[in-house]
Amino acid sequence: MCGIVGYVGKERCVEVLMEGLRNLEYRGYDSAGLALAMPERGIETTKEVGPLDNLAGAIGEKYDDFFKVRVGVGHTRWATHGRPSEANAHPHTGGGAPAGGPEVAVVHNGIIENHAELREELRERGFEFRSETDTEVIAHLLAERVAAGEPLREALVGTLKRLQGSFAVAVMSAEEPGTIVAARHQSPLVVGLGEGENFLASAVQALLGNTRRFLFVENGEIAVLTDSSVEIQTLYGQPVERETFEVDWSAEELGLNGYEDFMLKEIHEQPAALQATLAGRLDTDGVVDLSELDFDFSGIERIVVVACGTAYHAGLLGKYAIERLARLPVEVAVASEYRYADPIGDESTLVVAISQSGETTDTLAAVEASRGFGARVLAVTNTQGSLLTREAEAVLLTKAGPEVGVAATKTFLTQVAALYLLALELAGRRGGLSGEQLSDVGCGLRRSPEKVEEALGLLEGRVGEAVGVFAGARCALFLGRGHLFPVALEGALKLKEISYLPAEGYPAGEMKHGPIALVDEQCPVVAVLGEGTLREKTLSNVEETVARGARVIAIAREDDAAAARVAQVTLPVPEMPEILSPLVSTVPLQLLAYHVAKARGLNVDKPRNLAKSVTVE
Ligand code: M6R
Predict the structure, then answer these.
(1) In 3-state terms, the chain is what percent helix, strand and coil (to 5)?
(2) Residue 82: inside a domain
(3) Cβ of 298: how many Cβ atoms within 10 Å?
(4) Active site residue 612
(5) For ligand 1, is residue 16 a contact (CB within 6 Å)?
(6) Is the CB of 605 inside a 6 Å radius of any atom of ligand 1?
(7) pTM for the model
(8) Nearest to 170 by CA among 337, 178, 179
(9) Strands of 569-572's sheet, edge to edge?
(10) What residue owns the CA closest to ligand 1's atom 11?
(11) Which atom of ligand 1 is nearest to the CA of 415?
């Protein structure tokens, strides 16, 4: 949550910062701001509430010489302390008039937990606060040290030692106009390398238009950037040698490529994302090969999956597949609960941490909690070099490419595919199922990209009718059973996060224990029927809702006559082996959420109150 970006180098600072913020807007879009080292005028800040276009407009109006700027920092905010307002927008400044001393500017991602005490202490020393944020204390503490003559790096080290909480910060001072200093503890920070210019940001996506060469800054490290050098040290002054990391994402992948929204583009990218995730890991006979992980799977007796949101739903599908195929018990835990649950386990426990971003604070903390009992940790993530990849023994990378829409779509399907690969790998090692049975599932999985493509084709032009069922809806109930229950959960989450309609995902058989009370003409039922053993059972439950006035959208095979009988609309899915059918059944639910939200005139890529990466607790 919140994105920071910094640049030092050529006379294109504003362009780089604005592009960086544009690519980080998924991390928060309550307000945005820049601090620029203006030639001969010192540090000047510009901040605006709302989307980045407001800031771009303000910069254009304020300056006719912004193209001369060579150094600056920027921020896009997801409000934690203090409502979205210009005063609370970053960068925050300290020093300068009327406080005295050289002016400093700070951008921050994270939370300063002891900000109230520090604020009190600074007030007693005569500092005046202009915002309600936790970050402003950093600006004043830093300014005080710079005014006392400390160089910017030492001043930041001294300031950071006073802070409790999490941070990635980037600071600049009027005293050292060619330098940016940045540091991190718990929140992500990368340095991008250029020729005669250097960059920093919360995530590599911010800088892909400028560089693919990065240095990762680790917890407790501080980086000093000038146009010609990057020095990393620990907070205790020890120099750090860091290898350059080259990412294989490209700036082109961050474009809309003719689509109206990123979410729609990313839904349509799912066949390619699955293809890339499976490539090299599954041969033509459906035999899985995860030797790339170089991971010791021996002696694993139990699996715990930790994840949040959509990744948690992928984990539930992973449980289903691993238990069915490998007969290993799997617990799936919401990471924010697990981290405080004093979890039980031992060295025979494999913890699978799933996170698209690889930087969700609760998921990282859950991994740390599992270290207490000696767990082995496997990360499933889409983000190379993310914090999670550095906390795990092995990384099973989903290769969905960058996902910009706040609602996770292609990363969900690739997480599920990665977990199916893991289930097959474990099943192969444990020998419960025959090679032929496993190869059938493996071959089905290999065909999943084309099946998802087929689903997209079948659904073309079909979702509008289902959107009609939502006219006047005040809530929705998503029902499924077995492996289709997590699909129902995911469908409900997609709908609520982008259309703001209350939606419940429920096991169809549990509905009579409460949620059926919701059912009437204004509460559509979305029934994920699929095929297989539990279809009949789900159908009976759906009939019960129809008897109470529900209008039903069925996710089923096109030729499913029983589905057609109970439902106003069927959203068709192609045939797929039962265990793999979540891969196709999810697609109509993503499109349904998308089109319902569009019909309500909402911004699907940036739903209110949300940020894509949840980097605070
Ligand atoms: O980056 P992560 O996968 O760890 O993110 C977890 C959740 O925040 C995320 O899946 C969230 O629920 C999505 N916005 C759902 O679409």
Answers:
(1) 40, 20, 40
(2) yes
(3) 7
(4) yes
(5) no
(6) no
(7) 0.90
(8) 179
(9) 503-507, 476-480, 525-528, 552-556, 569-572
(10) 309
(11) 3
Q: Identify which of 307, 333, 544 has the alpha carbon closest to the alpha carbon of residue 418.
A: 307
Same domain, 390 and 528: no
The range of the structural domain enclosing residue 378 comes to 257-446
SS3 503: strand
- Percent pLDDT > 70 in the chain is 100
615 CA distance to ligand 1 middle (Å): 11
Tokens read off for 66: 């912004």
232-267 per-residue burial string, b: 16 or more CB within 10 A, e: under 16: bbebeeeeeeeeeeebebeeebbeeeeeebbbbbbb
Quickly tell me which residue has 């202490």 as its tokens: 121
Structural element, H or E, at residue 193: strand 190-193
248 and 266 share a domain?
no
Q: From ligand 1's centre to the CA of 313, what distance in Å? A: 10
Residue 515 has pLDDT above 90, yes or no: no
363 lines ligand 1 (CB under 6 A): yes
Whether 502 maps to a domain, the answer reads yes
Mean pLDDT of the residues in the chain:
94
Confidence of residue 99 (pLDDT cuts 50, 70, 90): low
CB 436 within 8 A of CB 427: no
Residues 304 and 220 in one domain: no
**Measured distance CA(602)–CA(605) in Å, rounded:** 9
Mutate to test the pocket of ligand 1, among 205, 357, 416 (most ligand atoms within 8 A of CB): 357
Q: How many domains are contained in the chain?
A: 3
Q: Which residues are paired to 372 by β-bridges?
A: none
Does the Cβ of 211 fall within 6 Å of ligand 1?
no
Residue for token digits 């900000």?
115
Name the helix (H) or strand (E) containing 67.
Answer: none
> How many Cα atoms sit within 13 Å of 285 on the Cβ side?
6
Predicted local confidence at residue 1, as pLDDT: 74
Beta bridge partners of 7: 72, 199
Residue closest by Cα to atom 12 of ligand 1: 309
What is the domain-level CATH number for residue 577? 3.40.50.10490
Catalytic residue among 2, 13, 475, 523: 2
State mean pLDDT over 125-141.
94
**Domain boundary pick from 252, 277, 311:** 252
Residue 2 a catalytic site member: yes
Q: Are strands 245-246 and 213-216 parallel, antiparallel or unpaired?
A: antiparallel
Angstrom distance (rounded) from CA 423 to CA 416: 10
Question: 184 near 165, Cβ under 8 Å?
Answer: no
Residue-wise pLDDT tens digits, 373-413: 999 999 999 998 888 998 999 999 999 999 999 999 999 99
Q: What is the pLDDT of residue 101?
A: 83
Q: How far apart are CA 111 and CA 167, in angstroms?
A: 6
